[in-house]
Amino acid sequence: MAEHGDQAMPLAGGQSLIPLLAMRLVRPGHIVDLSRVGELQQVSVAEGRVSIGAMARQRDIEHDPRMPGLVRVAVPHIGHFQIRNRGTVGGSLSHMDPAAEWPAIALALDAVMVAASVRGRRDITADAFMIGPQMTSLEPEELLVEVVLPMRTEGFGFAEVTRRGLGDFALAGAACQDKAVVVFGVGLRPQRLRVVEDFLNRGGGTRAEISAVAASEIQATDAIHTSSHYRRVVAAALVGAVIEESQARGGVA
Ligand SMILES: Cc1cc2nc3c(=O)[nH]c(=O)nc-3n(C[C@H](O)[C@H](O)[C@H](O)COP(=O)(O)OP(=O)(O)OC[C@H]3O[C@@H](n4cnc5c(N)ncnc54)[C@H](O)[C@@H]3O)c2cc1C
Questions:
Q1: Residues of the chain with CATH 3.30.390.50
Q2: Which of 88, 95, 134, 189 has most ligand 1 atoms within 8 Å of CB, for mutation?
Q3: CATH says 41-150 is which class?
Q4: pLDDT tens digits, one per residue of 3-35
Q5: Cα-to-centroid distance, 76 and ligand 1 (Å)
Q6: Where along the chain do the CATH 3.30.465.10 domains lie?
Q7: Could you give the C-alpha distances from 5 to 8, 29, 162, 209, in angstroms and in order?
Q8: How far is the CA of 13 from the centre of ligand 1 (A)?
Q9: Which residues of 44-81 are buried (b: 16+ CB within 10 A; e: fewer)?
Q10: Relative to the CA of 10, which ligand 1 atom is closest?
Q11: Which homologous superfamily does the CATH classification assign to the domain defined by 156-248?
Q12: Which end of the chain is least crowded, N or C, by CB within 10 Å?
């Protein structure tokens, strides 16, 4: 990566990169296959934190009982199991599809992304990592090597609306961990709803009141299947639902 800079692209599970190559939407001079870099596949739990190597497969994470609750409920919504068999956690975060589940999970859990290059390692907050569609704050020669999440087993909620049940990307979605609330699939990147979080911190309200606050804060854009109005309305309703779900799971919201 250091040698070829922005002429090189890492290949993880290939579930997004191979279609991009096939459609000639990207034309890298070099592809760097990460599949045999063993240390990138490691997963460990220590001191209340879960560290997931970038090359951990989504399907392995889905079935790992050591994962935070939000991860366990959200990851099964990613594509089909065949895609999760190949697709990796780091690949999904680096690809940064605004409708993907992993960026929303990372933002709700205040994940730390660990990037590495020949110049060393650095930690990036989930918020700073995500810039926009297929854009992250990784430098051209950097790899995402690890994602660090707090171990939380209560107080989480997750919901999304898709056209055909499991398998499709979300038309709109919401995730929460206690009072941290995120919507995804509505705009150019997942959005933390700070006004909703303040509302919850001041005592909150009914599900309908929470959804109304969310609707006023969500920044939605038009998409191929949905209008910005549809996305805002649906995501706001999902916010009310996930907060209720998180409270039922012992959340502090
Ligand atoms: C039919 C279909 C349906 C899908 N549905 C969903 C869905 O509902 N939800 C969802 O979230 N995803 C979905 N996906 C995408 C899937 O989750 C991919 O696995 C994921 O987006 C990319 O992960 P990957 O490991 O395959 O990465 P790759 O395709 O190998 O790489 C993706 C991009 O990330 C870069 N990259 C990979 N690893 C790193 C790294 N460690 N550091 C820096 N850059 C890196 C690559 O260079 C490339 O630009 C779907 C895919 C398909 C084909």
A1: 156-248
A2: 95
A3: alpha beta
A4: 999 999 999 999 999 999 999 999 999 999 999
A5: 15
A6: 41-150
A7: 6, 10, 37, 49
A8: 7
A9: eeeeeebbbbbbbbbbbbbebeebbbbbbbbbbbbbee
A10: 47
A11: CO dehydrogenase flavoprotein, C-terminal domain (3.30.390.50)
A12: N
**Residues lining ligand 1, Cβ inside 6 A:** 9-17, 54, 78-79, 83, 86-88, 90-92, 94-95, 97, 100-102, 138, 143-144, 169
pLDDT tens sequence across 105-151: 999 999 999 999 999 999 999 999 999 999 999 999 999 999 999 99
Cα 97 to ligand 1 centre (Å)? 8
* Span from the CA of 144 to the centroid of ligand 1 (angstroms): 13
Mean pLDDT (whole number) for 222-248: 96
Q: What separation in Å is there between the alpha carbon of 169 and the centre of ligand 1?
A: 12
**For the chain, where are the E strands, in sequence order?**
8-11, 30-33, 43-46, 49-53, 112-117, 120-125, 130-132, 135-136, 143-150, 156-161, 172-177, 180-184, 191-192
